[in-house]
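Chapter review: from sequence to fold.
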Amino acid sequence: MTTFQGILLGLIQGVAEFLPISSSGHLQLAQYLFNLGEVPLLFDVFLHVATLLAVVLYFRRIIWRLLCVCCRWILRRSLPRNRTALAEKHDRKLILMILLTTLVTGVIGLITSKVIPDFSIRAICVCFLVTAGLLIASAVTDKLICLHYAASSGVRGDRAFTGVRWWQALIIGFAQGAGTLPGISRSGATIAGALFSGVDRVTAGEYSFIVSIPAIVGAFLLELKDLGAVAGSIGASPVIAGCAAAFASGYVALTVLMRLIRKGRLEWFALYLIPVGVLGLVLLH
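The token string follows.
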């Protein structure tokens, strides 16, 4: 792999990890089109870690707040003056929901890795179409819920903040587990799962990316055994260049996506996924 190819794969990873179009599916598609052969899985995980840093930077205030709450909870420290008991209780509940989602994701991910074989390019293209269907269906569901909220409350616009309940955390965890399949967007699946279960848009977007942190860290730790394979078959230069490209493009893509989520425009990405999936089924073998 050349440095240019590493940068290209990093750009694809950074954009596709956050935009709901499936980074794993696009990486495999790029590897197929550029005839890169079998790229060690840890290289993909390194790119995911680079985009993870973009998530941490973007949501740094929320992440720091939750870490402080977790430390106070474990050490039984008193609340700071600018913190209410109600806010502390809400964040403790959020931490538990993140753990529950992560547990479900881990179980589903282990099952899919053992039971489902490696995906062909055509299977990935089918999954692109599945992701497009999820985005359209979740957008329609969200708009219907907003209309119902407006009719019942007399207030136009987005729904009120709802938080995440335990059964919604289960659904989101299942959706994130399904997002481990190439062609199924992790961000698209988790945001769609949140919207389907009634979570408001802003919370759905934030929660989707916060729960990606333990999932990516877990995948990285599991693949550390392939570190020698990455160094031997790829080299340091493409890895470093790819990670830098993934971080930069990922932060920009995340910023754009959060704005689109607030506006309820996720279905726009189906306009890209549908022709890509159809053309892939027709042209690629």
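Two observations follow directly from the output. DSSP finds 13 helices and no strands in the chain. The two ends are 23 Å apart (CA to CA).
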